[in-house]
Automatic annotation (TrEMBL):
Residues 606-665 form the Peptidase M24 C-terminal domain. Residues 73-203 form the Creatinase N-terminal domain. Residues 378-594 form the Peptidase M24 domain. Keywords: Aminopeptidase, Hydrolase, Metal-binding, Protease. Its EC number is 3.4.11.-. InterPro entries: Creatin/AminoP/Spt16_N (IPR029149), Creatinase/aminopeptidase-like (IPR036005), Creatinase_N (IPR000587), Pept_M24 (IPR000994), Pept_M24B (IPR033740), Peptidase_M24_C (IPR032416), X-Pro_aminopeptidase_P (IPR050422). It comes from the Bacteria. Belongs to the peptidase M24B family. SUPFAM superfamilies: Creatinase/aminopeptidase (SSF55920), Creatinase/prolidase N-terminal domain (SSF53092). Gene3D superfamilies: Creatinase/methionine aminopeptidase superfamily, Creatinase/prolidase N-terminal domain. The keyword Transcription regulation does not apply. This is Aminopeptidase P family protein.
């Protein structure tokens, strides 16, 4: 069989690694890189999946790479606007599941604009258009999106709603796909339209789908069962807890549209999107714990069907009728307005259901990992730390000689990870940024932007792996020495050490139960703030258990979630500093929330963090004069753990390098 071989560098965010694994896939059963463990009895042959995904990705990559086609696509969309008597249309980067990582079919924003970041939104009017993203992608928008076609804007500084208020004209109708916006999101957009005297108009069919003539079909990734030894809880136990939740609230049923919630509830994993083992599907759970799962049956082999024996299986086409059935029966239905498409509420209400709007009941129990999940994550991080340490040792020996570039370094790191046969996939496309590219917070290297790792510069690498027992995410910033340049500049050391001090302050934090991540965020920024510096991203995001590398509801950020941090939650600790045009610095470990004191004087438990990532920090970048004795002690203790857990797994040459890299500071 001949597989299409697309230019991986031309793919949109988070697809290149996925395709790279598929293109090198082994036979039709067993380990299937980029997809995971492929069932022997899958109805669709593995070869067919390979050819389909590779071919579609090649076609999509070519479409995105052809920047000259963007003007034609805009013209086609505007012609469709005229046919439907609309003044404009909103194009968010999401799908009907409100996912962060979306399949090829839902990459509408990339297809329309050429922007390949993982967060963004465009609004196209008949005579002008704009695209928004956050601070992570400011430079990427400038590089990828034609400013003559789209106004490039920061989503916080210049919100889309404000732009609409000043741009729409009285009586105009702005189209939107209600599946791709939450109720709250649509409410804000509708208010902006109303302020301009215009109207927000939901459409039956997405306008991009109407003009995207070679749009890929929905994905057909296989589904597998997740072993209870790894989850620590049976699906039956989780369903019973959810049923109790519904009964306590007086709800008859809950509709789940987040695939990660369904994966967690039913102890299944999928392979419909790159890097995140999601089974794209929707579900309804009744007050007795019964589950109706709406999923393409071609994804389900006999083994997973046996695992789902007490689940009522339906094809996705039956979902609307099932919503109508709930409405006609006058059921009280729980939905999460923050994570489900507004279409859901509109359909249920029209059918006669009573809506109970509250948080997806799977989010919080999913975030609080079981003992088995925590043990699995620790084990995955030990193995992942060995791969990262091998890479750092190789980089230290090879990069100073010249010849190493961003693409090559990312490929070598992935190769070290794939030495672990349990690796299912990367957890996201590796951020591999040399020199000024490191200052692009969520940089994605392409053939056009690929830089050499030059002597005397900084290299930022943010990466992770998906293992059956855990999901990893780690960032290290490394100095590339060589020749006469043996040490980083004083400014580099100052900035790195300030970021490190913020990282340590958060890692050492002790806080009363009930504290949210928003309350802790300033700990990581304080030392940067002292000298007038900051970073334009959150400090910490939740991480799943062989699920999404970005998991809610917890986070650490200036505008973080009000959800209190709870024991068992896994969250990142990743302050940074970015000097545009020069370099970027980020230090990221994952930490698990744990109980430090069972009962203090006020009766509350006190919590803290256990750092579970295992890889050394570049000591050449540390300015000892800026550190307190307690901070030095933390670094030395952390490096002792890295040595203890990683050294037994690596080869002799890496072990010798690791011994030096983890030596006590000042030794």
């Amino acid at each position: 069989m001949t597989l299409h071989q697309p230019d991986l560098a031309a793919l949109p965010a988070d697809l290149a690694g996925f395709l790279r694994g598929i293109a090198a896939a082994p036979p039709a059963f067993g380990q299937f890189p980029g997809i995971g463990l492929l069932p022997r009895d899958l109805p669709v042959p593995a070869a067919q999946i390979q050819e389909m995904v590779s071919g579609l990705a090649a076609q999509f990559a070519a479409a995105i790479e052809d920047r000259t086609a963007v003007a034609g696509r805009l013209e086609s969309l505007r012609a469709e606007l005229a046919r439907q008597d609309l003044a404009g249309f909103i194009v968010p980067l999401t799908d009907e599941y409100q996912s962060e990582y979306v399949p090829l079919r839902a990459q509408r924003l990339s297809w329309l604009t050429g922007f390949t970041g993982s967060a963004g939104l465009a609004i196209v009017l008949r005579d002008r258009a704009a695209i928004w993203s956050d601070g992570r992608y400011t430079l990427q928008l400038q590089q990828q999106v034609d400013g003559a076609l789209f106004e490039r804007r920061h989503i916080s500084d210049e919100p889309p709603a404000d732009w609409l208020k000043s741009t729409l004209r009285h009586g105009e109708r702005l189209g939107c796909d209600p599946w791709l916006h939450t109720e709250d999101g649509l409410r804000r957009l509708a208010a902006a339209c109303e302020a301009a005297g215009a109207v927000l108009a939901p459409v039956e069919r997405n306008l991009i789908d109407a003009v995207w003539t070679d749009q890929p079909p929905p994905p057909l990734g296989p589904v597998i069962a997740q072993d209870e030894a790894l989850t620590g809880r049976s699906a039956a136990d989780k369903r019973a807890q959810l049923a109790e939740n519904l009964q306590g609230r007086g709800a008859d049923a809950v509709v789940l549209t987040l695939p990660e919630s369904i994966a967690w509830l039913l102890n299944i994993r999928g392979s419909d999107v790159p890097h995140t083992p999601l089974p794209l599907s929707m579900a309804m759970v009744d007050r007795d714990g019964g589950v109706d799962l709406f999923i393409d049956g071609r994804k389900l082999g006999a083994d997973v069907r046996r695992h789902l024996a007490d689940v009522r299986l339906h094809e996705p086409a039956g979902f609307d009728a099932a919503l109508d059935t709930l409405g006609r029966a006058k059921k009280t239905v729980q939905i999460d307005p923050a994570t489900s498409g507004a279409y859901l509420a509109r359909r249920l209400t029209a059918a006669g259901a009573t809506l109970m709007r509250c948080e997806d009941p799977c989010l919080l129990p999913k975030a609080c990992k079981t003992a088995a999940e925590l043990d699995g994550s620790r084990a995955a991080h030990r193995r992942d730390g060995a791969a990262v340490s091998r890479f750092l040792a190789w980089l230290d020996a090879t990069a100073p000689q010249g010849g190493v570039d961003e693409l090559g370094a990312a490929a070598r790191l992935e190769g070290f990870r794939r030495l672990d046969n349990s690796l299912r996939d990367l957890s996201f496309t590796t951020i591999s940024g040399a020199g000024p590219n490191g200052a692009v917070v969520h940089y994605r290297v392409t053939a056009e932007t690929n830089r050499k790792l030059e002597q005397g510069t900084l290299y930022l690498v943010d990466s992770g792996g998906q293992y059956p027992d855990g999901t990893t995410d780690i960032t290290r910033t490394v100095f590339i020495a060589g020749g006469a340049i043996g040490l980083p500049s004083p400014e580099m050391r100052d900035r790195f050490t300030r970021v490190l001090k913020g990282h340590i302050a958060l890692a050492r934090a002790r806080f009363p139960e009930g504290t949210s991540g928003q309350q802790l965020d300033a700990l990581a920024r304080h030392v940067l703030w002292e000298v007038g510096l900051d970073y334009d991203h959150g400090t910490g995001h939740g991480v799943g258990s062989y699920l999404s590398v970005h998991e809610g509801p917890q986070r650490i950020a200036k505008l973080g979630s009000p959800i209190a941090l709870k024991p068992g939650m896994i969250i990142s600790n990743e302050p940074g500093y970015y000097k545009t045009g020069a370099y970027g610095i980020r230090i990221e470990n994952l930490v698990a929330v744990r109980v430090e004191t069972e009962q203090a004087e006020n009766g509350k438990r006190w919590l803290g963090f256990e750092t579970i990532t295992r890889a050394p920090l570049d000591q050449r970048l540390i300015d000892l004069t800026l550190l307190t004795p307690q901070e030095v002690g933390w670094i030395d203790a952390y490096h002792a753990l890295v040595w203890q857990d990683v050294a037994p797994q690596v080869d002799e040459a890496t072990r010798a390098w690791l011994k030096q890299a983890t030596a006590p500071l000042g030794a």
